[in-house]
Amino acid sequence: MSAPLNISRRTFLKATALVAGGLVIAFAIPQAKRFLMPGADKAPASPDAAKLPAPNAFLRIGTDNSITVMLAHSEMGQSIWTTLPMLIAEELDADWSTIKVEHASAAPEYVHTAYGIQITGGSSTTWSEFDRYRQAGALTRALLVSAAAQKLGVAADSLRTENGFVVSGTDKISFGDLAEAATNLPTPTSVTLKDPKDWKIIGKATKRLDGPEKINGTAKFGQDVQFEGLKTAMVARAPVFGGKVKSFDDTASKQIKGVHNVVQVPTGVAVIADNYWSAKQGRDALKIDWDLGENAMLDSKKMLEEYRTLAASPGLAAAKAGDTQSAFSKSTTVIEAEYVAPYLAHSPMEPLNCAVKITEDGCEIWTGTQMQTTDQGAAAKILGLKPEQVKIHTLFLGGGFGRRANPAADFVSEAVQVAKAAGVPVKTVWTREDDVKGGYYRPMFLHKAKIAVGADGMPTAWEHTEVGQSIMTGTPFESVMIKDGVDATSVEGVADSPYLKSVPNHQVNLHTVKATIPVLWWRSVGHSHSAFAMESLIDELAHTAKQDPLEYRRALLKDHPRHLAALNLAAEKAEWGKPLPKGVSRGIAVHESFGSFVTQVAEVSVVKGEVKVHRMVTAIDCGLAVNPDSLKAQMESSISFGLGAALFSEITFKEGQVQQSNFHDYQVLRMKDMPKVEVYIVQSTEKMGGVGEPGLPPVAPAVTNAIFAATGKRIRSLPIANQLA
Amino acid sequence: MITLNINGKDKQLDAPDDMPILWALRDVAQLTGTKFGCGMAQCGACTVHLDGQAIRSCVTPVSAAVGKKITTIEAMQDDKVGQAVQAAWQEIDVVQCGYCQSGQIMAATALLATNQTPTDADIDAAMSGNICRCGTYPRIRAAIHAAASKLA
After folding, report:
1. Which residues of A touch B139 (CB under 8 A)?
2. Minimal C-alpha gap between B7 and chain A (Å)
3. Alpha-carbon distance A716 to A94, whole Å?
4. pLDDT band at A15 (very low <50, low <70, confident <90, very high)
């Protein structure tokens, strides 16, 4: 990690222009090999300082000693507002109290080092920026040291840096005082990153930099954008996905005080008003005749029956080894089970919104987005502009969970359409009902498994068939993520399961259903349902073999040290095997996702059919934990998000319509349902993984496995809801 | 025009009688610290105090606030209990996305104003109307207990 940077491979660039009085560091690194977007691996245009939009940098040192870190990723709760600055501050030897943070604009310089577009997702921010942000800090430090050496007339290697100063003996010069001189120096040909043993910030629990403004109400979210002339718009959308406006009558709507205009847009009819309340009343007063289209009779119960029929045939192969049929014919013990996970809405606390101002030579957009590149491209296409003419201001996201990273750029495109049709700057706002009913759900999935068990209780053949919608079909990522008809995100956690590697005969099949329900990645993507199926099945096998569920997993995972490390740490801290109070039972689950390995141990009781989760013990191996406290927060968060979904949440359809509408019928976890959480971090020097999502997949199966231990009832369909009543 | 007392000051606002306090605060008075989450008193993001009581401003019309005192997150730094709650929030590093936190802090402050030694059950009862999708619940609970000790 501390090897000198090979500058010949990495094109560094120092902006020569002073921005806000100080030093601006911008650089581009060559595109990495793993790309999500086809064509994104083409060499980026040669960076040219003169053409860079300002501010465009990872780091800016003001002559007032302020250090502003530009985030290439969006802050949505995961704490990268703090973690990325920690990387820069470490190498820069900055005074932490002078750090300021801004979301970067949408620009090619900020594309994801692995995915090739500007995106916050896949639990990838910290590992993908670990080198780039440290290098930005180290490069800046080198320039400041050179500037100080010139100023003092001493050799650069006689100087050191400390807490925002370059120090020479008893003299010290602040970074701010050196910033201007540093801009005129040649870019260093190499920088050396610190040896991990010298880290003062990385690896230390560090308080969030966005804490104070989120506590006193001054933090700005997309919803809070206000400026002179900005109108509020609310769109009436079809009650059924794919429905179209036949005709509408806006007479009553236009009589509402504060309503200015009513315009038709591709997604429906938009009411333009002075404020939310007028827009809402105006929308309620619209009379729209809809053509409901082909989904008018959509019914999720019937869909599930169709899924079952499909699951009876093999579909496309996603993984295959040995000969399952022959193994089944020789086996005396065969278990068969079906697992179902429902459609789920993300329901971030901040309902979707997007402000758009179309100008003579471009467009400005204010929103909370996880995917600036596709939003920018979609807006440009609608307006006939070049992407660089669309300026995106990313505000704090009031939760994302995947909903604000939409390849279809749905909420941004719609806002641009409304602004274009209305001819005034607008902020589209969604109600909670719009959010719950508006789609882009985690798709419903059915898993059907048939497993042969050998005399030792271990699986000898495993046939696993999945049925569900693909989230990648029809997106720009399709050609990369779908191979031979198999969407990798549909079968992740199954086709690549470490358990299956130990089963000599196995086959994973997929039926991709062509439904027109808009679907999207939902925190932990395919793992959100595959871990439920796999970890429940493993539990079923352990009980069939009359073996302890922990020991059974240890045996199957003996060649998977990182799974074992997480399993063993959680088991030790949860005191697995030690008697619990009467009525309380344990369940365990372990799952790898996004490069990290997490075990959850749940302690659960079931009283009069009601499930109470008392305690969750979590262990994670994610490699280096850059900020252990924010890592813990992400584990708490994953438990809350995953447990709420497991216990309560589902989106269902009847006669084409979504049957849920708000938090009373699309229920999520509340304070009274939150268990005690203990998080333990495996001390690991393994490859870094993510932390935003990996905690979630093992939550549901740990809880349902505990329910089985408590009641003997195997939960095979989520949500648990009143299945135990 | 309607006269509302917001954070100790009378303000003339161009808001119809049936406009929820939430939208009068956000869209008319430009006080955006109070958040919109559900519009039907299900999530608590819009919690403010009306004469010291925690209310859901998304379903309470401005007409119900005439002659009463509305207190919002913007005034918590001037409130003794509010200060203790905000300090505990900072100390325990409660927030994640932060969107629900104004409402959480307003609900917690109203709880501690009347109950200086809340039990976990009291916290469950007072705080279960405030949803946090990021799952900051364990830290909110810890911060309420910490603020209670500071106030004792």
Report:
1. 633, 636
2. 14
3. 53
4. very low
Q: Is A187 on the interface with B (CB under 8 A)?
A: no
CB contact under 8 A, B90 and A212: yes
User: ipTM of this complex > 0.90?
Assistant: yes
| Distance spanning both ends of chain B, measured CA to CA | 43
pLDDT: is A52 or A652 the higher one? A652
In whole numbers, what is the pLDDT of chain A averaged over residues?
92
Phi, psi of A388 (to 5 degrees): -70, -10
Write out the residue range of the structural domain in which residue A245 sits.
222-293+353-429
Contacts of A213 in chain B (CB under 8 A): 98
Does A718 map to a domain? Answer: no
Domain match, A116 and A255 both: no
* Region of residue B108 (phi > 0: left; psi between -120 and 50: alpha; otherwise: beta): alpha
Strand partners for A337? A449
Domains held by chain A: number: 3
Instruction: Give CA B3 to chain center in angstroms.
Output: 21
- The DSSP call for residue A73 is S
Tell me if A671 and B141 make a contact (CB, 8 A cut-off). Answer: yes
Choose among A594, A530, A477: nearest CA to A319: A530
CB–CB of A82/A627 below 8 Å? Answer: yes
Does one domain contain both A664 and A641? yes
Is 1.10.150.120 the CATH number for B76-151? yes
What CATH number should be reported for the domain holding residue A478? Answer: 3.30.365.10
Give A451's DSSP letter. E
Choosing from A198, A215, A232, the residue where a domain stops is A215
Residue B9 makes CB contacts below 8 A (sequence gap 6+) with none
Determine the distance in angstroms separating the CA of B152 from the nearest CA of chain A, rounded to an integer.
Answer: 22
Measured between alpha carbons, how far is A598 from A584 in angstroms, rounded to an integer? 23
Say yes or no to pLDDT of A605 above 70.
yes
Q: Which DSSP state fits A495? A: T
Give how far A38 is from chain B: nearest CA, Å.
31
Q: What angle do CA A275, A276, A279 make, to 5 degrees?
A: 85
Percent of chain A scored above 70 by pLDDT? Answer: 92
Contact: A633, B139; criterion CB under 8 Å: yes
CB proximity B103 to A under 8 Å: no
* Partner-chain contact B38 A432, CB within 8 Å: yes
Domain boundary among A194, A215, A236: A215
Residue with tokens 């002078």: A98
CB contact B104 to A (< 8 Å): no
Say which of A208, A275, A670 has its CB closest to residue B23: A275
Check residue A71 and give left, alpha or beta (phi > 0: left; psi -120 to 50: alpha): beta
- Which residue in B has a C-alpha nearest to residue A639's C-alpha? B135
The pLDDT confidence band at residue B10, using thresholds 50, 70 and 90, is very high
- Output the CATH code of domain B2-73: 3.10.20.30
Q: How far is A200 from chain B (nearest CA, A)?
A: 20
Q: What is the reported pLDDT for A64?
A: 87
Phi, psi of A621 (to 5 degrees): -115, 105
Chain A interface disruption, residue of B6, B49, B97, B130, most A CBs within 10 A: B97
Instruction: For residues A175 and A226, state if they share a domain.
Output: no
What is the model's pLDDT at position A62?
86
Instruction: Give the integer Cα–Cα distance in Å for A451 and A463.
Output: 6
Return the structure tokens found at A10: 């990495």
From the list A274, A633, A676, the residue facing B96 with the nearest CB is A633
CB atoms within 10 A of CB A301: 9
Question: Is residue A420 pLDDT above 50, yes or no?
Answer: yes
pLDDT tens, residue by residue, A709-718 = 999 999 999 9
Residue in chain A lying closest to B30 (CA): A226
Separation CA A591–CA A698 (nearest Å): 6
Q: What percent of chain A is predicted at pLDDT more than 90?
A: 86
